[in-house]
Amino acid sequence: MNADPEVMRHFTAPYAREQSDGFARRSADAIEQQGWGRWAVEVVGGAPFVGFVGLAPVRFEAHFTPAVEVGWRLAREQWGCGYATEAARGAVDFGFDELGLHEIVSFTAVGNEPSRRVMERLGMRYDGEFAHPLLGEDDPTREHVLYRLQRDDWSRLDGRRA
């Protein structure tokens, strides 16, 4: 999945095997250490692994940090099935209900319309653009959009109670 150029088109480059394995290891370590993170997603009665969805502390300094982000990456064959939105709703529920977060953010490269639509389906609000500080000035994916979701807004969505 991380080696697929289409899946990774809004990133600097596809991951080499070692990079992908390191990402998976760091994700598993985070879950073991803090009890939450980026979870593997599988489809009941279907594919045993379709990608990941979950929460992670933002690992750089910006005008909106410290923060926890909700993020996802799915194999191309799984796009358009609603899995990212469904799993991200579960992650956001967990962040607000179990972790007691007051806000969750999400961000992506400006041109990543599919991820922006997921953010909007989650009820997140667009909060402008920023230059991703971990990406070089010449990186075409450096400009990112930021979306935010407050706990109070989440509790009002879909008939949820605070």
Core attributes:
single chain, 162 residues, alpha+beta, Aminopeptidase, three-stranded antiparallel β-sheet, 4 helices, 6 strands, 25% strand, globular
Structure, explained:
With about 160 residues, the protein is of the alpha+beta class. The chain has one domain: Aminopeptidase. It is built from four helices and six strands. It has a three-stranded antiparallel sheet with strand order 1-2-3. A three-stranded antiparallel sheet has the order 4-6-5. It is globular and about 40 Å long. The N and C termini lie far apart (about 35 Å).
In brief:
30% of the residues lie in helices and 25% in strands. The chain has 162 residues and is α+β, with helices and mostly antiparallel strands.
What integer is the average pLDDT? 93
Radius of gyration equals 15 Å
Quote the beta fraction: 15-25%
| Class from secondary-structure proportions | alpha+beta
Please describe the topology of this protein.
Elements: H1 17-34, E1 38-41, E2 51-57, E3 68-74, H2 83-97, E4 103-109, H3 113-121, E5 125-131, E6 143-150, H4 151-156
Antiparallel strand pairs: 1-2, 2-3, 4-6, 5-6
